[in-house]
């Protein structure tokens, strides 16, 4: 069972449009509404793969009620923490070439009591979890050290924790030694404070995060593939994608695949790449099902191509 924690979930409305034109009235060719938030997407991908998952998240107002209903409809067990503020709604516009424009709302401000209730819910509901995945930005009211506190709490209970966040929240949490962190290229560059031009640069940055406390670093490098740096060394894998329809939630799908495959080693990395490649070919933030996956298309290099220039340099 994989328990996910999403401190700032959302309802995600996605519109597919011919082109984004500022100041114009645009007509969507398709639209959809999905449960949103990085941890929520991990739970959705885990559930779609047929594994048990429990989503812990604050829920407030009509949007929060709708979010809980959408998750339940996907067969996901929800442990909602009632909050006074309204759960946020986000909007994404996707063009035919895969270009994504996203507007994320700030979300509610959590009180000290609501913050404690969220931590307590994780503590009481985490028995039997194989992994606890804590994902996304922190809402207003939660200090950057909140994730560090959660990592320490999870470790005291003897569980493993994967963390997908960025900025001060990631930096603070590293001191608590999360088992896995999952930055993308931009977040990895931000964490070490310098641009990343090549895969070799990304390897060095991942090593630095491990030196600061991360047990393993699973780094999404966009179209270039994914990198795993852990106690056994460095591993790299990629998969061809014919058409990118939407990259919303692709990194979350990757983390779900990684954890569902055990959360360690090349086998888990292969699953992460297969899940991510499948996700970008689906509309909106739809999560892949087993029929969408093609692990045979994943290329795992015996040696990491250190000199390869990243197609979208980070930082």
Automatic annotation (TrEMBL):
Gene3D superfamilies per UniProt: 3.40.1190.20
SUPFAM superfamilies xrefs: Ribokinase-like (SSF53613)
Domain (Carbohydrate kinase PfkB): residue spans on this chain: 23-291
GO molecular function terms listed in the Swiss-Prot or TrEMBL record: 1-phosphofructokinase activity
Keyword Nucleotide-binding listed: yes
Documented EC number(s): 2.7.1.56
Record carries keyword DNA-binding: no
EC category name: transferase
Entry keywords, A to Z: ATP-binding, Kinase, Nucleotide-binding, Transferase
InterPro entries listed in its UniProt record: 1-PFruKinase, PfkB_dom, Ribokinase-like, Tagatose/fructose_Pkinase
Stored PANTHER family: 1-PHOSPHOFRUCTOKINASE (PTHR46566:SF5), 1-PHOSPHOFRUCTOKINASE-RELATED (PTHR46566)
Protein family per UniProt: Belongs to the carbohydrate kinase PfkB family.
Protein's recorded name: 1-phosphofructokinase
Species per Swiss-Prot/TrEMBL record: Streptomyces chrestomyceticus
